[in-house]
């Protein structure tokens, strides 16, 4: 496919590279500049002299030409204070061709993403330290029971470190885009999409003081009320849910127009038991209790978008009662479920 039809070339030039300030250079194997054209002034290259060696004319190409490989691609190369280029070098008929495209906007976007990743890493590190301190208290209590047989289970319950039994709210979130049969034919790379969805939602949970407990399939389970906070666990989880719903309305794939993410969210509240279980060489935080049981039972039956809460969560959100309505029916063994309520902003 060496000879592209003229309409194809024109289309590519008018769409893909129109706003990227294309420049091409032709350089001999002896390092002489044979040809140069394109938006040269955008990169401050309007005074190039043909027939001369690169020298100080194209400092950023020193050491890159003559080309020692088939094709060289550098996605981000800083050549001026505010200009970064995407650089291609390839060989054809004993000369080297150089293509420059402006990649400043992509570089800026990558910088913002990296900054968000750094912020998220710091937040996770802080939460990990807080959890490690609570886990250390739990391990100390377990060691005391083992070494002192005079301590009874009742004594242990009376002196458990904070975090063993907690009034918590569990947020269960499910992505519909990856489970709807009608969308299956048009979804490509579903695992990559799931990874993008998780990356999009996780910071919103962490920023609200939640902890990602697990994600299975297309669902995320997060815990609220584990880390110290001035807010109740139910209020933390509710605020996180509202932020997630608002953010999902403006979700945008890396390439393509914005399109809302279809999600369901469920809040279940109550007392949970935290403990450590040994998995191989590592210890893992285990959670048991009615809120977790209900979350696991109800999540597969959630067949509608939006936010739903159980009875304890509804009671704790007393100032928000006017925004909730009882849910009449869901698929599943509802006789064992508490009443559920659906949130409506209207």
- Overall structural domain count: 2
CATH C-level label of the largest domain: Alpha Beta
CATH superfamily descriptor of the largest domain: Nucleotide cyclase, GGDEF domain
Q: Which bin fits the share of residues in helices? A: 25-40%
How many individual helices?
Answer: 7
Main sheet attributes: strand count, strand direction, barrel closure: 8 strands, mixed
Rg on CA atoms, Å? 29 Å
Overall number of strands: 13
How do the SSEs run, as a string of H and E? Answer: HEEEEEHHEHEEHEEHEHEE
Distance between the termini: 57 Å
Structural class label: alpha+beta
Overall geometric form: elongated
Low-confidence stretches: 151-163, 181-186
Judging by the overall fold, what is the CATH architecture of the largest domain? Answer: 2-Layer Sandwich
CATH topology of the largest domain: Alpha-Beta Plaits
Which range does the strand content fall in? 25-35%
- The chain-level mean pLDDT equals 76
């Amino acid at each position: 496919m060496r000879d592209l039809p003229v309409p194809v070339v024109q289309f590519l030039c008018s769409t893909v590279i129109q706003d990227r300030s294309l420049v091409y250079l032709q350089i001999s194997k002896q390092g002489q500049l044979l040809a140069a054209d394109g938006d040269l002034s955008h990169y401050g290259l309007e005074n190039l002299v043909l027939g001369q060696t690169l020298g100080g004319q194209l400092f950023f190409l020193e050491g890159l030409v003559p080309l020692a490989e088939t094709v060289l691609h550098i996605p981000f190369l800083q050549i001026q204070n505010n200009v970064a280029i995407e650089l291609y070098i390839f060989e054809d008929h004993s000369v080297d061709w150089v293509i420059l495209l402006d990649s400043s906007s992509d570089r800026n976007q990558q910088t913002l993403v990296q900054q968000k990743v750094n912020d998220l890493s710091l937040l996770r590190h802080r939460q990990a330290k807080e959890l490690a301190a609570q886990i250390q208290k739990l391990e100390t209590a377990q060691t005391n029971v083992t070494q002192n047989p005079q301590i009874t289970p009742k004594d242990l319950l009376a002196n458990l470190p904070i975090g063993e039994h907690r009034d918590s709210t569990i947020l269960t979130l499910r992505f519909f885009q990856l489970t709807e049969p009608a969308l299956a034919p048009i979804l490509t790379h579903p695992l990559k999409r799931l990874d993008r969805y998780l990356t999009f939602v996780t910071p919103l949970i962490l920023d609200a003081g939640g902890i990602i407990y697990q994600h299975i399939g297309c669902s995320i389970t997060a815990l609220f009320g584990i880390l110290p906070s001035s807010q109740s666990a139910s209020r933390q989880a509710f605020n996180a849910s509202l932020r997630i719903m608002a953010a999902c309305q403006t979700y945008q794939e890396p390439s393509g127009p914005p399109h809302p993410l279809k999600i369901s969210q469920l809040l279940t509240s109550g007392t949970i038991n935290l403990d450590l279980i040994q998995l191989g060489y590592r210890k893992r935080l285990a959670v048991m209790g009615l809120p977790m049981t209900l979350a696991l039972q109800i999540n597969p039956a959630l067949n509608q978008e939006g936010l739903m809460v159980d009875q304890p969560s509804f009671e704790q959100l007393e100032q928000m009662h006017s925004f909730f309505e009882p849910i009449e029916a869901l698929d599943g063994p509802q006789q064992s479920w508490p009443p559920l309520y659906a949130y409506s902003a209207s």
